[in-house]
């Protein structure tokens, strides 16, 4: 005889395998009386599982979609399939789902028993992905970083800068952000006593997990994407600009990736402000013209002057 808790899990698993179960058949599979089955169905409903009951000759039970997603039971093969799919999604093959896929991957693999982890490792070693644009980041590294962010664990790792020089870093991780081509870690750098962004493809090996830390107030009021965008698209450059684009924010967000500039909606999203940077004003001038939208330069004045010179040259060339 199964215990009550074990029987509930078994019942839930059976309900998820078919669209409809006859009550008598379901009771026989569980080896319980129909009255016991009805009590178990009521318990599942109390736990938030939407189980529909129908009466009559063809009556029975069916698992239906509810207002919220309840916990799902996966068998071994399903768990492996979902894990592989989530790892593929974290590579950025489908835009906009990389970070939710990473969060789900951490939850799934943390609960996975050792015997499944071994099978998963074997599957991963046999899968050869096609090359894609941008640096490749190992999903195991992403999962470790996401776990440390969620559980507020300090990290130690070796980091290579743009010149290939390595240094040991000790940080309190806040979150991971995908910009379309690259993954970044946002973390409080303990040595520099400030928030920093780290390109995850420049982290060498797997980080070491350290002690628990108390959370700090997040940069950019918790908007980590804005923080990363400013850090990689504005702050590193000598020439920095603020522009008002007379085009919808949604349209510009599709055309300007976070690594190229920080967009802020204005007037309910009908216009937007762009913060961007470059090593030379000429680069900003021609890039803004290539956007093919009307804009106002808020700063710097030198960019206005450079645009005026470029416009006068264009007029002379077309006279």
Question: Can you walk through the features of this model?
Answer:
This protein is 42% helix and 25% strand. The mean pLDDT is 87. Helix 4 packs antiparallel against helix 5 (98-111). It folds into four domains: 4-63, Arc Repressor Mutant, subunit A; 76-126; 139-225; 234-318, 2-Layer Sandwich (Alpha-Beta Plaits). The N and C termini lie far apart (93 Å). The strands form three sheets. A five-stranded antiparallel sheet has the order 7-6-5-4-8. Strand 6 (183-189) and strand 7 (194-199) form a beta hairpin. With 319 residues, it is α+β, with helices and mostly antiparallel strands. The chain contains eleven helices and twelve strands.
Structural class: alpha+beta
Oligomer: single chain
How many discrete domains? 4
Unreliable stretches: none
């Amino acid at each position: 005889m199964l215990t009550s808790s074990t029987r509930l899990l078994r019942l839930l698993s059976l309900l998820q395998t078919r669209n409809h179960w006859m009550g008598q058949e379901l009771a026989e599979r569980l080896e319980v009386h129909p009255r016991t089955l009805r009590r178990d169905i009521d318990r599942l409903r109390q736990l938030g599982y939407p189980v529909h009951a129908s009466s009559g000759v063809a009556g029975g039970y069916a698992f239906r979609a509810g207002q919220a997603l309840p916990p799902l039971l996966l068998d071994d093969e399903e768990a492996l399939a979902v894990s592989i799919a989530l790892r593929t999604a974290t590579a950025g093959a489908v835009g906009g789902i990389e970070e939710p896929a990473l969060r789900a991957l951490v939850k799934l693999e943390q609960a996975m028993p050792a015997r499944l982890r071994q099978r998963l490792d074997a599957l991963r070693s046999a899968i050869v992905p096609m090359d894609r644009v941008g640096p490749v980041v190992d999903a195991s590294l992403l999962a470790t970083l996401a776990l440390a962010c969620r559980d507020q664990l300090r990290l130690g790792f070796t980091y290579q800068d743009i010149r290939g020089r390595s240094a040991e870093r000790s940080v309190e991780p806040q979150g991971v952000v995908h910009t379309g081509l690259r993954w970044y870690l946002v973390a409080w750098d303990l040595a520099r006593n400030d928030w920093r962004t780290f390109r995850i493809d420049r982290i060498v090996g797997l980080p070491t997990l350290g002690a628990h830390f108390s959370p700090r107030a997040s940069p950019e009021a918790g908007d980590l994407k804005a923080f990363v965008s400013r850090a990689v698209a504005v702050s590193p450059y000598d020439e920095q600009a603020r522009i008002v684009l007379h085009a919808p924010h949604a349209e510009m967000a599709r055309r300007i990736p976070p690594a190229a500039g920080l967009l802020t909606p204005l007037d309910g999203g009908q216009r937007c402000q762009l913060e961007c940077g470059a090593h030379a004003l000429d680069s900003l001038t021609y890039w803004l013209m290539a956007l093919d939208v009307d804009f106002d330069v808020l700063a710097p004045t030198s960019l206005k002057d450079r645009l005026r010179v470029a416009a006068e040259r264009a007029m002379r060339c077309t006279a």
